[in-house]
Amino acid sequence: MKYNSVLKAEFLYRKNRFIAICKKGFKLLTVYVPNTGRCKELLKEGTTVFLTYNDNPNRKTSYTLVAVIKGDKIINIDSQAPNEIVYEAFNKNKIDLGFKYGIIKREYTHGDSRFDFYLEGENKKALLEVKGVTLENNGIVAFPDAPTKRGLKHINGLISSSEKYLTYILFVIQMKDVKFFTPNYVTDKNFSMGLLKARNAGVKTLAYDSIVTRNSIEISEKVPVILEETWNLDLQRN
């Protein structure tokens, strides 16, 4: 996935969940933030960020914040990116689900849930939900960075579908060079315990990291997953 018209700027502050103020030279820019998570460890005053520019007159702001520099990492925070790069990766057979899939459908409804992907092949049918991960501390990455009732609903939907489908939840880590993925028990214990319940019901949890540049992101390699509360860390501390 590639972005057009990317420029470097300095993050100043977040006005609300969707809007931030950044600075380019002496010019202040009103910027759309495509991520409703807290991102407190990323969006700090003075942080270098990357913005895309779009001159569509129907937009409230011409700029969108898509990536952040944290230490030696570029972290993509675009919440639309994970689904896009997973779709690209499926079409290149880069994600191992344990079977070869030839049919790929997006936004698939089953029961009272809508899942990101439906896949079919080798007489097998699968449902898969995607979650983007931006929270990192010392190489450990976790989800969520804010409580998510919607995320728990997706888990329960996968559990209830497990008798008829192969079921997966795929965490897309929107950065490179991490040690492992774990649920964030500190921030959302219900979601984290839900992942354990899902595993016991047959839902498979996968995590892949990403190659991120200032103007692109793509799926890279599988990352180890630890679902137990062994690493009960406050990942949003400095």
- Under the CATH scheme, the architecture of the largest domain is 3-Layer(aba) Sandwich
In what range is the share of β-strand residues? 35-45%
Number of domains: 2
Radius of gyration: 18 Å
**Separate helix tally:** 3
N-to-C span = 31 Å
Describe the structure.
The chain is α+β, with helices and mostly antiparallel strands and 238 residues long. It has two domains: 6-76, Beta Barrel (OB fold (Dihydrolipoamide Acetyltransferase, E2P)), CATH 2.40.50.580; 81-222, 3-Layer(aba) Sandwich (Trna Endonuclease, Chain: A, domain 1), CATH 3.40.1350. Helices cover 15% and strands 43% of the residues. The chain has three helices and 15 strands. A six-stranded mixed beta sheet has the order 7-8-9-12-14-15. It is globular.
Write a brief structural summary.
This protein is an alpha+beta fold and 238 residues long. The chain is built from three helices and 15 strands.
Write the layout of secondary structure elements.
Elements: E1 6-14, E2 19-24, E3 27-32, E4 48-53, E5 63-70, E6 73-76, H1 81-91, E7 103-110, E8 113-121, E9 124-133, E10 135-137, E11 140-143, H2 149-161, E12 166-173, E13 180-183, H3 189-200, E14 204-213, E15 216-222
Parallel strand pairs: 3-5, 9-12, 11-13, 12-14
Antiparallel strand pairs: 1-2, 1-4, 2-3, 4-5, 5-6, 7-8, 8-9, 10-11, 14-15
